[in-house]
Design brief:
single chain; mainly alpha; Receptor-associated Protein; 78% helix; elongated
Amino acid sequence: MSTQIEPRPEFAGILRTQETFGTGEGRDFNDRLNSSFDKILLQSGLDISPSTLLMLVLLGGVTLGGIAYVIQENFLTTAVGFMAGMLLPLLIILFVRNQRQSKMMSQLPEMVDELGRAARTGRSIDQCFRLVAEDTPAPLGDELRLCSSKLDLGINLRQALDGLPERTGLVSLNILTMALGVHMVTGGDLVAVLERLSRTLRERIHYLGRLRAATSASRATAILMIALPPAILAFFLFRDPGYFTNLMASGWGRAITLTAIALDIIGVIWVLRILNRSAQT
């Protein structure tokens, strides 16, 4: 029978409050957007709060927007600079997250192999996991040591691994947690399970590499569709601040511009959905 520990106000300052913008339940669009923002920041591994990142986003927008206004004193180019400055910190966070996930993905097969070698010595699964967590380098080792610290608090391995796939954003770690959780319930040959899991992870990494190579042209097309139209518009705006105003003043120019923007957005969403579905197979 587990004992419920009552919270004590005199010890409230010991725990660090986890700041989030979303509830994680996804009941409406705003909550899903805020939860995605929190998840991207969590998976990046950066030790900053969502409010700090939001301040950096606003600071980047004000900085580039202010520079554009000082150079040209045009409100349209200032707005373009403000939007570009706001996107820059988010793009950096996405780049850091992708680099971190790629490095953890490359560490996974060797980590599972080491876990299997530790299991051959006759240790329990908890002891093997603690041993591997200490030997695995960052960034994967940091996440494993966080789970290991939960084991030291008396939490079982299945519960300690619950948040690992969400913190990393890796489907392969979800496979690992499911395999270890099923083994704890059903038992069996742990070494054989880990060997099969290691082969599965290596095959998955090989498959993802071939998938990225096969879809590189599509991804490059999606990036061009996203980046090229704003870049061209920014070029003409900084070259001639009155260009966009004159273009929108005519009926045909306004119709063609709005149609091009709508078609570009539809194309970007279409290509990204195709790539996302391909990555999930």
